[in-house]
Design brief:
5 helices, binds heme C
Length: 104
């Protein structure tokens, strides 16, 4: 299975599972994400290249989100973030998409 096929398959599964949960997996707008400082920054930064569902289906610790950001910068062509922006993004992701979220 190719990586993109794998991602498409897991996205489809995520959308299917979310149909019965209170939080939709389809994120077309920052308003579709939980309110909080950094929401717009995360939305516009991350959805520039790929679906936000790739992000919002995850449940990761702050440390692992930090690793994801390194991976985005080093291998996927994301612009290097200044420290304040990076912390804003990490705080938002770790607050709302952490390991113990119930909706994944
Ligand atoms: C410059 C483009 C770019 C930006 C900006 C970007 N990404 Fe990515 N991201 C990618 C690419 C390319 C992939 C790999 C997708 C693939 O292989 O189909 C990816 C994959 C991912 C994955 C992996 C999904 C999985 O199935 O494991 C996560 C998580 C992710 N990105 C998070 C983020 C977050 C969070 C942000 C915003 C802070 C972000 N990305 C911003 C290009 C980008």
């Amino acid at each position: 299975m190719t990586l993109s096929k794998l991602i498409r398959t897991s996205l489809a599964a995520g959308i299917f599972l979310a149909a019965g949960s209170s939080m939709a997996a389809i994120v077309n707008d920052p308003e579709d994400m939980p309110p909080g400082e950094g929401r717009e920054t995360v939305f516009y930064m991350c959805s520039a290249c790929h679906s936000m569902a790739i992000v919002t289906q995850q449940g990761l610790s702050r440390k692992r989100w930090d690793d994801v950001l390194d991976w985005m910068v080093e291998d996927q062509g994301m612009a290097e973030l200044d420290e304040a922006t990076r912390n804003e993004i990490l705080d938002y992701l770790a607050d709302h998409y952490d390991e113990d979220r119930t909706n994944n």
